[in-house]
Amino acid sequence: MRHMLNPLDFSVEEIDQLLSLASDIEHNLPQYAHVCDGKKLATLFYEPSTRTRLSFESAMLSLGGSVLGFSSADSSSAAKGESVSDTIRAISCYADIAAMRHPKEGSALVASQMSSIPVINAGDGGHQHPTQTLTDLLTIRSLTGRLNNMTIGLCGDLKFGRTVHSLINAMVRYPDIRFVLIAPDELRVPSYIREDVLNANHVRFKEVNNLDEAMPELDILYMTRVQKERFFNEEDYIRLKDCYILDKKKMKLAKENMYVLHPLPRVNEISTEVDSDPRAAYFKQVQYGVYVRMALIMTLLEVEKPC
Ligand code: CP
């Protein structure tokens, strides 16, 4: 039995297979309508979510399976003090696979150790968000035709942003990837990402404060939200929340074939005037998130691709 806790749980070859399956699903959706008949997905969300929870549910329903779960800690027995370990042991009796989001780093790992069904990490605190990364990889590969030889700008909250940490972890395994890390000093990537991931893999990167100066060299711009829920001090959040706002003027500085991604939700960091720019790919990204989660559910449940 396999889990998906971290993008590195799958080799590059396995990720490529999964993305190819997701692309096949995109182009032949009706063929997959019954491959998970009789299977159940549990969504255990201790933290708010729109896209991740609903895209998992949409994915399982599109595969012919069914879904059950909770969407907040308050509506589960966590409110009575139940541990994640006990919850997953109970859920293992009800479902065939579980997707779990939790505010504490490492919680999905703890769940996987007590689970008798595959566990998918749907975001654990500021740590990892591997299915967002699979979504990002599928989006980049579908739009550009490659996952190598590109300059990726990561902008915003690079300290607490689990989508950024997961994406860096995944992309360093592809050849000729360069990163421009665009953040205020207080929200730079954690040192373990800098040392243990970027430097350890000899990946070229630079850390800058200025988005305008970085724009012309980027093939992908990955914008992120400054996350109010990760700050201990509201004053710091208010000071930093609007540090980068992507607008039409900034888009004029970018390559014609650069794409803007964002895991969403956005607050102010991308002006809505950018939405109509053909390079704005963040709502396409949402759609790719369903196909890639369908492919992941099939892979972890060892469901055969239809003939
Ligand atoms: N991208 C993402 O994780 O969005 P939600 O918080 O809405 O699930």
Helix/strand layout:
Layout: H1 12-27, E1 40-45, H2 51-62, E2 66-70, H3 84-91, E3 97-102, H4 107-114, E4 119-124, H5 130-144, E5 150-155, H6 162-171, E6 177-182, H7 191-199, E7 204-208, H8 211-214, E8 220-223, H9 234-240, H10 248-251, E9 259-261, H11 282-300
Parallel strand pairs: 1-2, 1-3, 3-4, 5-6, 5-8, 6-7, 8-9
Bound molecules: phosphoric acid mono(formamide)ester.
List descriptors.
binds phosphoric acid mono(formamide)ester, single chain, Rossmann fold, globular, five-stranded parallel β-sheet, 2 domains, 11 helices, 307 residues
Structural class: alpha/beta
- Please give the count of helices: 11
Shape: globular
* CATH level 1 class label of the largest domain: Alpha Beta
Share in helix: 25-40%
Largest sheet, in brief, is: 5 strands, parallel
| CATH topology (level 3) name of the largest domain | Rossmann fold
Strand order of the largest sheet: 7-6-5-8-9
**What are the low-pLDDT stretches, counting only 5+ consecutive residues below 50?**
none
Q: Note the gap between the termini.
A: 24 Å
Number of domains: 2
Bound compounds: phosphoric acid mono(formamide)ester
Number of strands: 9
Architecture per CATH nomenclature, i.e. the level-2 architecture of the largest domain: 3-Layer(aba) Sandwich
Taken in chain order, the helices and strands follow as HEHEHEHEHEHEHEHEHHEH
